Request: fold
Amino acid sequence: MGMRTPPTLRRARALLCFILAATLCACGAGMQQDLDAAGAGADGGDGSSLLPTDHLPTVNACVSAGTAPRALRRLTQAELNNSVADIFADPSKAPQTTDVFRSDPVIYGFHNNYTALAVRDIGASSLMGFAEACGAYAAAQAARLAPSCSQPTDVCRSQFLSTYGQKFFRRPLSAQELAAYLPLMQAMPDFAGGVSAAVAAWVQSPYFLYRFELGSRSGAGYALSPYELATELSYTY
Reply:
Protein backbone atom coordinates (compact mmCIF):
# COMPACT_ATOMS: atom_id res chain seq x y z
CA MET A 1 0.00 0.00 0.00
CA GLY A 2 1.52 3.37 -1.06
CA MET A 3 2.17 6.26 1.27
CA ARG A 4 -0.49 9.00 1.37
CA THR A 5 0.54 12.58 0.67
CA PRO A 6 0.18 14.80 3.75
CA PRO A 7 -2.66 17.36 3.52
CA THR A 8 -0.22 20.25 3.94
CA LEU A 9 1.82 19.15 0.93
CA ARG A 10 -1.34 18.67 -1.17
CA ARG A 11 -2.48 22.19 -0.37
CA ALA A 12 0.98 23.59 -1.24
CA ARG A 13 0.92 21.80 -4.59
CA ALA A 14 -2.57 23.06 -5.40
CA LEU A 15 -1.56 26.62 -4.56
CA LEU A 16 1.52 26.35 -6.74
CA CYS A 17 -0.54 25.08 -9.69
CA PHE A 18 -3.02 27.93 -9.24
CA ILE A 19 -0.25 30.54 -9.22
CA LEU A 20 1.39 29.00 -12.33
CA ALA A 21 -1.92 28.93 -14.23
CA ALA A 22 -2.66 32.55 -13.32
CA THR A 23 0.81 33.60 -14.45
CA LEU A 24 0.44 31.86 -17.81
CA CYS A 25 -2.97 33.45 -18.38
CA ALA A 26 -1.58 36.90 -17.60
CA CYS A 27 1.39 36.39 -19.96
CA GLY A 28 -0.89 35.16 -22.72
CA ALA A 29 -3.18 38.15 -22.35
CA GLY A 30 -0.21 40.50 -22.39
CA MET A 31 1.20 38.92 -25.54
CA GLN A 32 -2.19 39.15 -27.23
CA GLN A 33 -2.40 42.85 -26.31
CA ASP A 34 1.07 43.39 -27.79
CA LEU A 35 0.08 41.61 -30.99
CA ASP A 36 -3.14 43.59 -31.21
CA ALA A 37 -1.23 46.82 -30.71
CA ALA A 38 1.31 45.84 -33.35
CA GLY A 39 -1.46 44.93 -35.75
CA ALA A 40 -3.23 48.19 -35.17
CA GLY A 41 0.04 50.09 -35.37
CA ALA A 42 0.97 48.55 -38.70
CA ASP A 43 -1.64 50.72 -40.28
CA GLY A 44 -1.67 53.33 -37.54
CA GLY A 45 -5.15 52.29 -36.45
CA ASP A 46 -6.50 55.17 -38.50
CA GLY A 47 -5.23 53.94 -41.85
CA SER A 48 -1.80 55.53 -41.52
CA SER A 49 1.40 53.47 -41.71
CA LEU A 50 4.20 53.09 -39.18
CA LEU A 51 6.63 52.63 -42.09
CA PRO A 52 7.91 55.89 -43.57
CA THR A 53 6.67 56.49 -47.08
CA ASP A 54 7.84 60.04 -47.73
CA HIS A 55 10.90 58.72 -49.58
CA LEU A 56 8.84 56.79 -52.13
CA PRO A 57 8.15 58.34 -55.54
CA THR A 58 4.69 59.61 -56.24
CA VAL A 59 2.36 57.05 -57.76
CA ASN A 60 1.02 58.31 -61.07
CA ALA A 61 -1.60 56.58 -63.13
CA CYS A 62 -0.55 55.55 -66.63
CA VAL A 63 -2.65 57.81 -68.81
CA SER A 64 -0.82 57.50 -72.11
CA ALA A 65 0.94 54.98 -74.30
CA GLY A 66 4.14 57.02 -74.35
CA THR A 67 7.43 55.27 -74.95
CA ALA A 68 10.14 54.82 -72.33
CA PRO A 69 13.05 57.26 -72.37
CA ARG A 70 16.20 56.41 -74.30
CA ALA A 71 18.74 54.85 -71.99
CA LEU A 72 22.24 53.53 -71.46
CA ARG A 73 22.00 50.74 -68.92
CA ARG A 74 25.25 49.69 -67.28
CA LEU A 75 25.57 45.98 -66.53
CA THR A 76 25.22 44.90 -62.93
CA GLN A 77 27.90 42.65 -61.48
CA ALA A 78 25.68 39.60 -61.97
CA GLU A 79 24.98 40.58 -65.58
CA LEU A 80 28.70 41.11 -66.15
CA ASN A 81 29.54 37.64 -64.86
CA ASN A 82 26.73 35.98 -66.79
CA SER A 83 27.69 37.77 -70.00
CA VAL A 84 31.31 36.64 -69.81
CA ALA A 85 30.30 33.05 -69.04
CA ASP A 86 27.88 33.06 -71.97
CA ILE A 87 30.34 34.60 -74.44
CA PHE A 88 32.98 31.99 -73.67
CA ALA A 89 30.37 29.18 -73.42
CA ASP A 90 32.08 27.98 -70.25
CA PRO A 91 29.96 28.73 -67.16
CA SER A 92 32.09 26.61 -64.83
CA LYS A 93 35.55 27.99 -65.72
CA ALA A 94 35.09 31.42 -67.29
CA PRO A 95 36.41 34.25 -65.08
CA GLN A 96 33.94 35.65 -62.55
CA THR A 97 34.24 38.61 -60.21
CA THR A 98 32.93 39.69 -56.83
CA ASP A 99 34.86 42.99 -56.78
CA VAL A 100 33.68 44.88 -59.85
CA PHE A 101 30.66 47.09 -59.09
CA ARG A 102 30.31 45.62 -55.58
CA SER A 103 29.66 49.12 -54.18
CA ASP A 104 26.67 49.78 -56.44
CA PRO A 105 23.85 51.56 -54.60
CA VAL A 106 20.63 49.74 -53.75
CA ILE A 107 17.57 51.75 -54.74
CA TYR A 108 14.28 50.59 -53.17
CA GLY A 109 15.80 47.14 -52.76
CA PHE A 110 17.01 46.82 -56.36
CA HIS A 111 20.61 46.71 -57.61
CA ASN A 112 19.83 47.50 -61.25
CA ASN A 113 18.50 51.06 -61.23
CA TYR A 114 20.38 52.30 -64.29
CA THR A 115 20.07 55.95 -63.30
CA ALA A 116 22.36 55.29 -60.31
CA LEU A 117 24.89 52.92 -61.91
CA ALA A 118 28.23 54.22 -63.14
CA VAL A 119 31.87 53.15 -63.52
CA ARG A 120 33.62 54.80 -60.58
CA ASP A 121 37.34 54.99 -59.77
CA ILE A 122 37.57 51.90 -57.59
CA GLY A 123 35.27 50.01 -59.93
CA ALA A 124 37.41 50.97 -62.93
CA SER A 125 40.51 49.60 -61.19
CA SER A 126 38.78 46.33 -60.34
CA LEU A 127 37.38 46.16 -63.86
CA MET A 128 40.85 46.41 -65.37
CA GLY A 129 42.01 43.48 -63.26
CA PHE A 130 38.96 41.45 -64.27
CA ALA A 131 39.48 42.36 -67.95
CA GLU A 132 43.08 41.15 -67.80
CA ALA A 133 41.90 37.89 -66.20
CA CYS A 134 39.40 37.45 -69.03
CA GLY A 135 42.18 38.13 -71.54
CA ALA A 136 44.46 35.53 -69.95
CA TYR A 137 41.65 32.99 -69.96
CA ALA A 138 40.88 33.69 -73.63
CA ALA A 139 44.55 33.31 -74.56
CA ALA A 140 44.67 29.90 -72.90
CA GLN A 141 41.48 28.95 -74.75
CA ALA A 142 42.48 30.47 -78.11
CA ALA A 143 42.49 27.13 -79.93
CA ARG A 144 38.96 26.37 -78.71
CA LEU A 145 37.64 29.87 -79.35
CA ALA A 146 39.03 29.98 -82.88
CA PRO A 147 39.32 26.33 -83.95
CA SER A 148 39.33 26.94 -87.68
CA CYS A 149 41.85 29.78 -87.81
CA SER A 150 44.28 30.48 -84.97
CA GLN A 151 47.40 31.54 -86.83
CA PRO A 152 49.05 34.98 -86.45
CA THR A 153 47.69 36.21 -89.77
CA ASP A 154 45.37 39.11 -90.51
CA VAL A 155 42.80 36.68 -91.88
CA CYS A 156 42.60 34.81 -88.58
CA ARG A 157 42.75 38.00 -86.54
CA SER A 158 39.93 39.62 -88.51
CA GLN A 159 37.81 36.50 -88.21
CA PHE A 160 38.26 36.43 -84.45
CA LEU A 161 37.50 40.14 -84.15
CA SER A 162 34.32 39.81 -86.18
CA THR A 163 33.06 36.73 -84.34
CA TYR A 164 33.80 37.71 -80.75
CA GLY A 165 33.49 41.44 -81.21
CA GLN A 166 29.84 40.87 -82.05
CA LYS A 167 29.40 38.76 -78.92
CA PHE A 168 30.90 41.41 -76.66
CA PHE A 169 29.22 44.43 -78.28
CA ARG A 170 25.94 42.58 -78.89
CA ARG A 171 25.98 43.81 -82.47
CA PRO A 172 28.37 43.51 -85.45
CA LEU A 173 31.50 45.66 -85.29
CA SER A 174 31.69 48.45 -87.83
CA ALA A 175 34.50 48.59 -90.38
CA GLN A 176 36.08 51.43 -88.37
CA GLU A 177 35.99 49.39 -85.16
CA LEU A 178 37.53 46.36 -86.86
CA ALA A 179 40.29 48.59 -88.24
CA ALA A 180 40.94 49.98 -84.76
CA TYR A 181 41.24 46.57 -83.05
CA LEU A 182 43.33 44.86 -85.73
CA PRO A 183 46.58 46.74 -84.89
CA LEU A 184 46.08 45.75 -81.25
CA MET A 185 46.24 42.09 -82.20
CA GLN A 186 49.03 42.68 -84.69
CA ALA A 187 51.20 44.18 -81.96
CA MET A 188 51.21 40.92 -80.00
CA PRO A 189 53.89 38.28 -80.69
CA ASP A 190 51.42 35.48 -81.37
CA PHE A 191 47.74 34.84 -82.02
CA ALA A 192 46.95 33.97 -78.38
CA GLY A 193 48.53 37.22 -77.23
CA GLY A 194 46.38 39.11 -79.72
CA VAL A 195 43.27 37.36 -78.42
CA SER A 196 44.19 38.34 -74.88
CA ALA A 197 44.68 42.00 -75.82
CA ALA A 198 41.41 42.22 -77.75
CA VAL A 199 39.34 40.55 -75.03
CA ALA A 200 40.85 42.72 -72.28
CA ALA A 201 39.99 45.82 -74.30
CA TRP A 202 36.45 44.64 -75.04
CA VAL A 203 35.64 43.90 -71.39
CA GLN A 204 36.50 47.51 -70.52
CA SER A 205 34.66 49.01 -73.47
CA PRO A 206 31.47 51.01 -72.86
CA TYR A 207 29.93 49.10 -75.77
CA PHE A 208 30.16 45.98 -73.61
CA LEU A 209 29.56 47.50 -70.17
CA TYR A 210 26.46 49.39 -71.25
CA ARG A 211 23.31 48.14 -72.90
CA PHE A 212 22.30 50.64 -75.53
CA GLU A 213 18.63 51.54 -75.84
CA LEU A 214 19.03 54.66 -77.95
CA GLY A 215 17.47 53.67 -81.24
CA SER A 216 17.26 55.89 -84.30
CA ARG A 217 14.83 58.65 -85.20
CA SER A 218 11.44 57.30 -86.28
CA GLY A 219 8.73 59.88 -86.77
CA ALA A 220 8.30 61.87 -83.57
CA GLY A 221 10.24 59.34 -81.51
CA TYR A 222 12.96 56.71 -81.69
CA ALA A 223 12.84 53.04 -82.63
CA LEU A 224 15.23 50.46 -81.20
CA SER A 225 17.36 48.58 -83.67
CA PRO A 226 16.86 44.81 -83.89
CA TYR A 227 20.08 44.29 -81.92
CA GLU A 228 19.02 46.74 -79.21
CA LEU A 229 15.64 45.09 -78.93
CA ALA A 230 17.17 41.60 -78.76
CA THR A 231 19.58 42.80 -76.06
CA GLU A 232 16.76 44.32 -74.01
CA LEU A 233 14.77 41.10 -74.19
CA SER A 234 17.71 38.83 -73.40
CA TYR A 235 18.66 40.78 -70.27
CA THR A 236 15.07 41.19 -69.10
CA TYR A 237 13.84 37.59 -69.38
In short: The beta strands are 71-74, 210-213, 216-218, 221-223. Residues 7-42 form the longest helix (36 residues).
